[in-house]
Automatic annotation (TrEMBL):
Domain FHA: 14-65
Keywords: ATP-binding, Motor protein, Nucleotide-binding
Xref: PROSITE patterns: FHA_DOMAIN, PH_DOMAIN
Entries under Gene3D superfamilies matching the protein: 2.60.200.20, Pleckstrin-homology domain (PH domain)/Phosphotyrosine-binding domain (PTB)
Ranges of Low complexity composition bias in the record: 667-683
An example Gene Ontology molecular-function term: ATP binding
Residue ranges of the region described as Disordered: 120-141, 185-210, 223-258, 659-684
Organism: Collybiopsis confluens
Pfam families assigned to the protein according to its UniProt record, in alphabetical order: DUF3694, FHA, KIF1B, PH
tRNA-binding is among the record's keywords: no
Domain (PH): residue spans on this chain: 1031-1130
PANTHER family: STAR-RELATED LIPID TRANSFER PROTEIN 9
Name assigned to this protein: Kinesin-like protein
Length: 1132
């Protein structure tokens, strides 16, 4: 075959040669620069590879192939042989597969390279057809020739043949991407010049080279070439990824997000390419940081797209997108160091937690005292890390703590000191620690025992002991620890020291022990230039290492022997049996994958002496970079556990009482050297009880919400539609009609009155349409967005004389704006349409409006559909109501105090808890527990540092001083000693914590409440809907005092459903008018109050938020109501 238009490549080898040559060839060509053996094609299993022979002029896609170079051919590749022969390679099987794949996949993610710009310029062309040539004036027969020639010419000049054919928009986008790539390469080269020791990776060089230059040509390696079934060209993520760069139509915010994501992904590839450098650890830190930033960007992109799909306005639209900042490894280390130092100052935040949760600890002790559980709760500080939640390994071995690792995950995962709860379990003779989260869970279970004490059907499902103790309680309790510094070990020094044993609960030394660390050897890692055949590292014995102190090199293996003995101070009066244990993470650091604990043998102090308690074990650890940091800066605790006696628990209880009473002793005046007697008398007088308005504490309010849907009637008035409720647990379904105007009426009521000063509704929204079928399954619809409804100006906010408050508002609702078939069509029988209704109410004491949300159920009927028959009220549990009610619990949390002088305002220790009289002089620990912990940390670390410095100084050789130099250096030595003695190390500023206001702080709240700082003390709200209850404890008629000034009593029907008392107008329970929350309930009844109220058989109900006066029809009914309202009340 010679000089033909089409050449069929048969399986095997096809040689291209010269027409007038004697050498055999399958394809014979003539012309300039055609050799006798020019090149050959190799066809194997449908894959064709071109091989360039020496001295031949062969061009592939405009690039000249080097001698001996081979390349796999794909459909559309252009080949120039010699000066005049231009070919285009086609693979029919590949074209067929591309067409099939293109049908199933419409969007192709192709890397934008020089050879692919033609496809980008003509996206509508078939994958099997060649793109349009720039030389449009030339005949179609000459197109391949002209295109390939121009491609080769432009390549030699460093240009691209398709640039002049691209539209202006594509050229602008391309210019922006090239500019980004050039900027990134300049920044990367600048950072490389600042750190010349980092080698440049081949991948990063390939990514930052100009893709239009000769050296920047993209050549696919043989192992990266795709098979014939792949439609996408082999790509690498770069700045020119069209799926990240094209942001047209998405808005500026979305475009910025995509640009940032593209830059982050590119830098990540640069980091991944340099894993083998000596700064691999720095690169790993930067990689983790950039991956985190990339995840944030992707999350914002997803949130932005979802919000815009729902038609909602996002924060990015309002504030604009803030690009994440990428820090270097050195900057990240500095940031983390500053943050760690800042997080270490936790005294102020822990004091806030202690004061704000004091009332919960008091309530738990009251319940424990009333039920006789023999357990006392109080605050303590849990150290982070290995001492966050220490547990005995002996208990674990015995199977007593098989689930201990997951019983309190919050406490065990803590890395910083945190406030915890100390449990003095006198029933099981144990002491252990709970996190505050677990304490709140246990407290709720304790409340259930008292709330449902008169309902055996409920209490039979509650364990009477589980809320108060650990299950099972530990046999060995953590009593203290000794702390040793690891600094000598990091310097390859053996050490022997006597270390005090500190109690974590009292911050006092309760004993001592001798700790001996003997260095066995250090196996150094072989240097990189060492002979590869020598597989052994250099070993340094313990004696030589002690004589020549030096740091442990990274990668070496450190072996040492740990001995703990000579334990003193632990008395058999306090402890029955004692053992100690050591954790491997104490030496390796928190980076240890799996924790290992090594306990000693337990010693029975009744039959053995303390001298038998000892621990001996050898350790071998690999000194990684993180391990070396822990050895240089860390401490290793030696934990002590014991079976405690009742004497020890009683002393712990007395310690808390003594420490708290000592802390509350009023200080004597020190303003003058000779204070007067009157001044002394005033200083020892107890302070007046402060007003509750002075405190800023967490508040809880119960709010009942009634929702009505009103439709326009023939008389032009809006009337509420009937609500069909099928039981006590069913809030009801609104019966609507097609094509009528509607209004949503929301009424709120609260027993808190002025304590919860709401003013108006600020926003009402409805949406998220769903279908609830007959089997209780919820079917989603396309209408998920929430629509804001216009509010009418007629809103009423009222605070009544009985201490209750109400808020009323209306909103217009046009159901057609949802464009949902579920709302437009008639609802099938026994099915409901669910909608989400949310509203916000402005409250004076809250920083932001309080948010409420609930689900409404409706059934859409025809225009002339009849309302449900009222006969339903007489059959079964079905009722026809005029409104749907829901109960919400609003939790108002105080903000963080801004200064130490306002810390006392968070104190809840004085907040009244019903039954607190049984506690006597007991008080929850205050900020003294934080001060004790700070003092403990300072003492034990200082003691460990002294022992470590003493060991290091003994290895320093003594310097000989000439006798004549002592005289003139004596004064300098004294001056230097005094300077060091007077110098203050550590932090120069200390935060003074106090539970009492300063002397210049007025006790009246007028100045405080009237100051400009009121806005900064607004509360944060959190709302939760309370599930409905279906069983009532008691029902009946009672008289309630609605206006004490006018002496107005009204007869109401009351239904007691713990923990709430529901109030109705009539006994049919169709119209609910109020709910009384029985939190902290206290009922009082005596003849004097009856005569004062002027009603026989009256009693007063006190709750945490209000008080109510009731009158029963008879003495028997009165006694029954009092017993049901307060089951814990002793009969009188």
């Amino acid at each position: 075959m010679s000089e033909c238009l089409i050449y069929q490549l048969k399986p095997g080898k096809t040689v291209v040669g010269r027409l007038d040559s004697d050498k055999p060839a399958a394809i014979l060509l003539s012309g300039d620069n055609i050799l006798e053996e020019h090149c050959y094609f190799e066809n194997t299993d449908g894959k064709v590879v071109i091989h360039c022979l020496p001295d031949s002029m062969t061009f592939l896609n405009g690039k000249r192939m080097a001698a001996g170079q081979s390349h796999k051919l794909r459909t559309g590749f252009r080949i120039i042989l010699g000066d005049n022969h231009v070919f285009r390679f086609n693979n029919p099987e590949e074209i067929r597969k591309q067409r099939d794949r293109a049908t199933a996949k419409s969007h192709l993610h192709l890397s934008l390279s020089a050879g692919d710009l033609v496809d980008a310029a003509a996206p509508e062309s078939s994958p099997a057809t060649r793109p349009d040539s720039p030389a449009s004036s030339i005949d179609a027969d000459d197109v391949d020739w002209t295109f390939a020639q121009r491609e080769a010419a432009f390549a030699r000049l460093g240009l691209d043949p398709t640039l002049d054919s691209l539209p202006d928009d594509d050229l602008n986008k391309l210019f922006e991407k090239v500019t980004k790539a050039k900027t990134f390469r300049e920044n990367h080269l600048r950072s490389r010049s600042e750190r010349p020791e980092r080698p440049e990776s081949s991948l990063s060089q390939a990514m930052t080279d100009d893709v239009w230059s000769e050296t920047g040509r993209w050549v696919v390696p043989s192992e990266a070439a795709t098979d014939d079934t792949s439609l996408e060209a082999p790509t690498t993520t770069s700045h020119f990824s069209p799926e990240l760069g094209s942001g047209s139509g998405d808005g500026s915010g979305n475009g910025n997000l995509k640009d940032v994501q593209s830059q982050l992904e590119t830098r990540l590839q640069v980091i991944n390419s340099s894993e083998g450098s000596k700064e691999a650890e720095d690169l790993k830190i930067e990689k983790e940081h950039m991956e985190h930033q990339l995840r944030l960007v992707r999350t914002q992109m997803k949130r932005l797209i979802d919000a815009r799909s729902r038609g909602e306005e996002t924060e990015l639209d309002q504030l604009g997108f803030v690009e994440p900042v990428i820090y270097s490894a050195r900057q990240l280390r500095l940031i983390r160091k500053v943050l760690d130092r800042w997080r270490a100052h936790r005294s102020f935040s822990m004091a806030e937690v202690v004061l704000s949760n004091a009332v919960s600890i008091k309530e738990a002790n009251v319940i424990s005292k009333e039920l006789g559980k023999q357990v006392i709760y109080n605050f303590t500080i849990s150290s982070g890390g290995t001492l966050a939640a220490p547990s005995s390994a002996v208990d674990t071995i015995a199977g007593l703590d098989q689930f201990g690792d997951v019983s309190d995950p919050v406490l065990r995962s803590a890395t910083q000191p945190s406030v915890a709860v100390k449990v003095l379990d006198k029933r099981h003779d144990a002491i252990y620690v709970w996190s505050l989260d677990r304490m709140q869970q246990q407290l709720q279970r304790m409340r259930n025992l008292t709330t449902y004490i008169d309902r055996p059907s409920y209490t039979q499902h509650f364990s009477s002991d589980e809320p108060f103790y650990d299950s099972p309680p530990p046999e060995y309790s953590f009593i203290g620890n000794a702390l040793i510094s690891l600094a000598p070990l990091s310097r390859r020094l053996s050490s022997t020291s006597t270390v005090p044993i500190f109690c974590r609960y009292t911050a006092e030394a309760i004993g001592s022990c001798r700790v001996d660390i003997k260095l066995v050897n250090v196996v150094l890692s072989p240097p990189k230039h060492a002979n590869a055949a020598n597989g052994h590292g250099h070993t340094i014995s313990g004696s030589s290492a002690s004589q020549i102190p030096g740091v442990v090199p990274p990668g070496s293996k450190l072996s040492f022997f740990l001995t703990v003995d000579t334990v003193k101070g632990l008395s058999h009066h306090d402890f029955s049996a004692v053992h100690l244990q050591v954790r491997l993470s104490s030496f390796v650091g928190p980076s240890l994958a799996a924790e290992e604990v090594f306990p000693s043998t337990a010693v029975d102090l009744e039959s053995s002496s303390m001298s038998e308690l000892r621990f001996r074990r050898s350790f071998s650890i690999v000194a990684s970079s993180k391990t070396l940091v822990n050895l240089r800066q860390g401490y290793a605790p030696i934990e002590f556990f014991a079976t405690v006696t009742p004497t020890y628990l009683e002393r712990m209880e007395r310690w808390d009482e003594m420490r708290e009473q000592k802390h509350h002793v009023p200080p004597r005046s020190s303003g003058s050297n000779s204070p007067s007697s009157s001044s002394d008398n005033r200083s020892i007088l107890p302070h007046m009880r402060r007003s509750e308005t002075d405190f800023v504490v967490e508040q809880t309010h119960d709010v009942v919400a009634w929702v009505q849907l009103c439709e326009l009637g023939p008389d032009g008035q809006y009337a509420p539609v009937p609500v069909l409720s099928q039981g006590a647990l069913d809030p009801g379904s609104f019966s609507l009609h097609q094509g009528l105007q509607r209004r949503i009426v929301i009424s709120l009521s609260s027993n808190s009155g002025q304590q919860f000063p709401w003013t108006e509704f600020t926003k009402v929204r409805i949406g998220n349409v769903r279908m609830l079928d007959t089997k209780g399954r919820v079917h989603e619809s396309a209408s998920k967005s929430l629509v804001t409804l216009p509010l009418l100006k007629e809103q009423r906010s009222e605070f009544k004389p009985d201490g209750t408050g109400s808020l009323f508002g209306q909103a217009l609702w046009d159901s057609s704006v949802h464009d949902s078939l579920l709302l437009n069509q008639v609802t099938p029988a026994n099915q409901r349409v669910l909608l989400q209704l949310t509203w916000a109410a402005a409250v004076d004491t809250c920083a932001d409006p309080v948010q409420f949300s609930l689900d409404l159920a409706i059934t859409m009927g025809t225009r002339d559909a009849r309302p449900p028959s009222k006969l339903f009220n007489f059959f079964g549990g079905t009722k026809i109501l005029t409104k749907s009610s829901s109960l919400f619990r609003v939790r108002l949390s105080p903000p963080l105090t801004r200064s130490a002088k306002d810390l006392w305002r968070l104190d809840t220790a004085e907040k009244y808890v019903r039954g607190e009289e049984s506690l006597g002089v007991w008080k929850p620990r205050g900020i003294s527990v934080v001060e004790d912990y700070s003092r403990l940390i300072s003492m034990e670390q200082r003691a460990a540092d002294v022992q470590a410095v003493r060991v290091i100084l003994t290895t320093v050789p003594a310097r000989t001083v000439q006798p004549d130099a002592i005289g003139w250096r004596a004064e300098e030595l004294v001056r230097k000693s005094l300077t060091l003695w007077q110098r203050r190390f550590g932090h120069h500023g200390n935060i003074i914590l106090s539970q009492e206001p300063s002397e210049e702080e007025p006790f009246s709240s007028k100045t405080f409440m009237g100051s400009d700082s009121l806005d900064g003390l607004k509360l944060a709200s959190e709302t939760k809907i309370i599930p409905r209850s279906d069983s009532a404890t008691k029902k009946g008629h009672l008289l309630i005092l609605t206006d004490a000034g006018q002496g107005i009593w009204e007869k109401r029907w009351f239904v007691l459903k713990r923990p709430h008392l529901h109030m109705y107008t009539r006994s049919n329970e169709l119209e609910e008018i109020g709910i009384v929350t029985l939190t902290g309930v206290n009922v009082e009844s005596d003849p004097l109050k009856e005569s004062l109220l002027g009603k026989p058989f009256s009693f007063t109900l006190f709750t945490a938020s209000n008080s109510h006066a009731f009158a029963a029809p008879s003495f028997k009914e009165k006694q029954s109501w009092v017993a049901k309202l307060d089951p814990t009340r002793l009969p009188s």
